[in-house]
Design brief:
It is built from 35 helices and 34 strands. It is of the alpha/beta class. Among the domains are: 73-248, Acyl-CoA Binding Protein; 261-373, D-amino Acid Aminotransferase, Chain A, domain 1, CATH 3.30.470.20; 411-541, Phosphohistidine domain (Glucose Oxidase, domain 1, 3-Layer(bba) Sandwich), CATH 3.50.30. Bound molecules: adenosine-5'-diphosphate and magnesium ion (2 copies). Its EC number is 2.7.9.1.
Length: 898
């Protein structure tokens, strides 16, 4: 097999659709070459080699790929007219990781590889710029030392060891900025850096470029398994076996002086989705300087620069002289960049996130990818591109990450609360949203408070997990393309970046804003849409459904085959779900209703009754409550089916366990406390979830089923007489044999007949069952003889198919996920290979007997996109999920069908 793919000078062995093999970065570097965008030449070592590296080890792998790598380096040398390690004309390279799915900042990059005592002379001669040559050299030692030789800070309160040395030298020289270092200073840094490496690692810093190259390749492959990469994969559900590619590429230099620069840009606004080219750059800088927030980057466009200055409270004069845009400093190159960004966006017909470097007046592109964006931006960009005719409806729909729609439903600040809130600082609106929480200063302490705001000078990839946990992120430094901003937008997390007034002391754990102190644990609020920081808590409320949201829902409506219902136990939930487009209720649990007010007393009386007569008396009391509830829900869902499940949980859950409550109950029932206690103890079960519950209750106490059936049918008849189209579907839970269902169905039908006679009116209703015991799925053909519909209860079905207790799985599931025994938590993501096959069998056997049997799902999985797609593939009629997941399920249902 081929392990190395070259690109350069308008030719490439790879192309954009080879992401699986070349990683996203490598595939797009190849593609840019093919469409005439200037890219420094290089080559990509495939993701398959990463897998080989992890399975067969370094020695074996390098032996296999060595000839191809050497040939590819030779080609780069030829195209750049340089030589690796040469004294006069050295070739310097970058070594970059790049996985299939973009993992920004997750893996490590080494720049200026090939530097040594000879090369630095060669670069000096060639460029006539000794300072630049030595600056590149010291950067190389820093990056290589960090990435390959593991020179890390000793603790989280400590600085990076190289930064320590830099600070030390600055102090000795009495200077403040990196740019004030002279060539001699940089030479001194190189010397001290090397000495530090020797001291810390016991190894000499490698001088042979080939040794450097292989070391860097190994580090990139190794970084696939670093903790932050692993965490990111978990979060984004990226499989461990994908691996990363390695891109080796000729360097171009943004740090060659004032005609050189480097930057990052977006073809549209990644926060709002507006079609505005934007980005940041730095003159005389290299690579990571922009994202790492070391110097304050400047805006690329003039209008962006003005907006930035306004937010920072900087006058137009000061802005134009101190922070001019690229459009102003390098108008010709700006024009080229603007043309290139348009070309790239048109080519990929999606918003691009690009990296560029200008070396002595020549523009080079170093990366392009589909840009990460907020949920709001995702919706707007898809709708705008559709309306502009750039993509078709199906493409627009496929651009929606269903889970991200959730962000559009997130709370926003209550305007009046915001007005009276005390604004203490202002930064950049890096990622929209409203966040209120308690201040923490270290990512690994984000979980210290129930809701925290992570406050950092800047964030780094190590902070990922804490950023995920925190409610919002505030940074003192860094721009719109800083690590914090990019990652926060990807997570849909509120972020304010570059709030310059915020001074942080990590040692004392205090932040100071204009003399005002905020300690760890103090409350602050962030508005990620305006960049404002407020003191204390600010109230939030639910958002309005925006126009783009509605348009996407229309698209979903057009393409989905399956219907989406909701799980709702109250008229209010039903109304919310209707607004989100739910067409019916897939699961109405009756037991929640019993906990309200006085009802629980009647319920307890029923449970603690000694005989049928007593039980019937208590049930009489419950009937009107139930009827009233059902009327409310059936009315809120008028015109749509409402599946009502008969009593399901073990009775033990309803009875009083505390002494005071038992006393009260004893009084109520006119019996002794001891008697109540005995009755309660009697209900104890060793395995309640496999015990006396579901239809086992209805079959042992048929009068419960009778009462519930009566309440449902009476409610429906009452509504019909009011002119409301009520459509009850009565669902028997937890059956394992057809007879269990048959006996319950008989009671329901008899009761309905009685009610119809009493009322002199009829309604249509269905009797069906939940399929949640594996035996019910296996014998679904028999069950379907009686059932008029099936609803797969995949929570219990997962529990019983795996034999994992839902309530106890927390003890081992995390370990199982870590060890790769399971890919996902099966209670969140339907296990298609196992539980899914049981579902499939149930559907097929059921439909063999009743071809038009109505079938749906009502477990948590009904709102999880991959599970929804599975439900479509086995031809279910609908999925049902909680109200706020209805939009997500609707989009997933549509995506399953395009
Ligand atoms: P990440 O995936 O973390 O963005 P990259 O591989 O894109 O890492 O590298 C980080 C930065 O290094 C890039 O933004 C770019 O500015 C710089 N860089 C990478 N390769 C080169 C190169 N060949 N010449 C100049 N700069 C480079
Ligand atoms: Mg990059
Ligand atoms: Mg169940």
């Amino acid at each position: 097999a081929k392990h190395v793919y070259t690109f350069g000078a308008g030719k490439a062995e790879g192309k954009a659709d080879m992401k699986n093999l070349l990683g996203g970065k490598g595939a797009n570097l190849a593609e840019m070459n093919l469409i005439g965008v200037p890219v420094p030449p290089g080559f990509t070592i495939t993701t398959e080699v990463c897998t080989m590296y992890n399975e067969q080890g370094q020695e074996k792998t390098f032996e296999v790929i060595k000839p191809e790598v050497e040939a590819a380096v030779a080609q780069v040398e030829k195209l750049t007219n340089t030589k690796f390690g040469d004294k006069d004309n050295p070739c310097l390279m970058s070594v970059r990781s790049g996985a299939r799915a973009s993992m920004p900042g997750m893996m490590d990059t080494v720049l200026n590889l090939g530097m040594n005592a000879d090369a630095v002379e060669g670069i000096t001669k060639k460029s006539g710029n000794a300072r630049f040559a030595w600056d590149s050299y010291r950067r190389f030692i820093q990056m290589y030392g960090d990435v390959v030789m593991e020179m890390k800070p000793a603790s989280k309160e400590e600085n990076d060891p190289f930064e320590e040395i830099i600070e030390q030298l600055k102090e000795e020289k009495g200077i403040e900025l990196d740019t004030q270092f002279t060539t001699e200073d940089l030479q001194e840094l190189v010397k001290r850096f090397k000495a530090a490496v020797k001291k810390e690692t016991g190894k000499d810093f490698p001088t042979d470029p080939w040794e450097q190259l292989w070391g860097a390749i190994a580090a990139v492959f190794g970084s696939w398994n670093n903790p932050r990469a692993i965490y990111y994969r978990r979060m984004e559900k990226i499989p461990d076996e994908w691996g990363t590619a390695v891109n080796v590429q000729a360097m171009v230099f943004g740090n060659m002086g004032d005609t050189s620069a480097t930057g990052v840009a977006f073809t549209r606004d990644a926060a709002t989705g507006e079609d505005i080219f934007n980005g940041e750059y730095l003159i005389n800088a290299q690579g990571e300087d922009v994202v790492a927030g070391i110097r304050t980057p400047q805006e690329i466009t003039r209008s962006g620069s003005r907006k930035w200055a306004e937010l920072q409270g900087i006058s137009e004069e000061e802005r134009a002289s101190k922070f001019p845009s690229l459009e102003e400093t390098m108008p010709e190159l700006y024009k080229q960049l603007d043309e290139t960004q348009q070309k790239l966006e048109d080519h990929y017909s999606d918003m691009q996130d690009l990296e560029f470097t200008i070396q002595e007046g020549k523009l080079w592109l170093l990366q392009t990818r589909n840009g990460k964006r907020t949920g709001a931006a995702m919706a707007k960009i898809a709708v705008d591109m559709l309306e502009d005719g750039k993509i078709d409806e199906k493409t627009a729909l496929s651009r929606i990450d269903a889970n991200k729609l959730d962000e559009l439903l997130h709370p926003v600040f209550v305007p009046s609360a915001l007005k009276s809130a005390n604004e203490v600082a202002k930064g950049l609106p890096a990622s929209p949203g409203a966040a209120t929480g308690q201040v923490v200063f270290f990512a690994d302490e984000a979980a210290k408070y129930p809701v925290s705001i992570l406050v950092r000078v800047e964030t780094s990839p190590e902070d990922l997990e804490g950023m995920h946990i925190a409610e919002g992120i505030l940074t003192a430094r860094g721009g719109m393309t800083s690590h914090a901003a990019v990652v926060a937008r990807g997570m849909g997390k509120c972020c304010v970046s570059g709030a310059g007034a915020v001074k942080i002391n990590y040692k004392t754990r205090v932040m100071t804003i204009d003399g005002k102190e905020f300690k760890e644990g103090d409350w602050i609020s962030l508005d990620g849409s305006t960049g404002k920081v407020y003191e204390g808590k600010v109230d939030t409320k639910n958002p309005e459904m925006s126009g783009n949201f509605a348009k996407i829902m229309d698209l979903a409506e057009k393409f989905a085959r399956m219907k989406v219902r909701t799980n709702a136990d109250s008229p209010n939930d039903a109304k919310v779900a209707r607004k989100f487009g739910a067409e019916g209720i897939g699961l109405c649990r009756t037991e929640h209703m019993f906990f309200e007010g006085d009802r629980i007393k009647a319920m307890r009386e029923m449970i603690l009754a000694n005989n049928e007569t007593e039980r019937r008396k208590a049930l009489e009391k419950l009937l009107p409550y139930q009827r009233e509830d059902f009327e409310g829900i059936l009315e809120a869902m008028a015109g749509f089916g409402v599946t009502i499940r008969l009593l399901d949980p073990p009775l033990h859950e309803f009875v009083p366990h505390e002494e005071a409550n038992q006393k009260e109950m004893a009084q109520e029932m006119g019996i002794s406390v001891e008697a109540v206690k005995a009755l309660v103890d009697d209900l104890h079960e060793f395995n309640p979830m496999l015990g006396h519950r579901g239809c086992r209750l209805g079959n042992t106490y048929p009068e419960i089923t009778e009462m519930q059936a009566r309440a449902i049918i009476e409610a429906a008849v009452n509504l019909k007489q009011k002119g409301v189209d009520a459509r009850p579907e009565i669902m028997v839970p937890l059956i394992g044999t057809v007879k269990e269902l048959k006996l319950q169905a008989d009671i329901i039908h008899e009761t309905a007949q009685k009610v119809f006679e009493e009322k002199g009116a009829k309604v249509d209703y269905l009797v069906g069952t939940m399929i949640e015991v594996p035996r019910a799925a296996v014998t679904a053909d028999e069950v379907a003889e009686v059932a008029e519909f099936f609803s797969f209860g995949t929570n219990d079905l997962t529990q019983m198919t795996f034999g994992y207790s839902r309530d106890d799985a927390g003890k081992f599931l995390p370990v199982y996920l870590e060890k790769g025994i399971l890919k996902n938590d099966p209670f969140q993501v339907l296990d298609q290979d196992g539980v899914g096959q049981v579902v499939k069998m149930g559907v097929e056997k059921g439909r063999k007997v009743k071809p038009d049997l109505k079938i749906g799902i009502c477990g948590e999985h009904g709102g999880e996109p991959s599970s929804v797609m599975f439900c479509d593939s086995v031809k279910m009629d609908y999925v049902s999920c909680s109200p706020y997941r209805v939009p997500i399920a609707r989009v997933a249902a549509a995506q399953a069908n395009i």
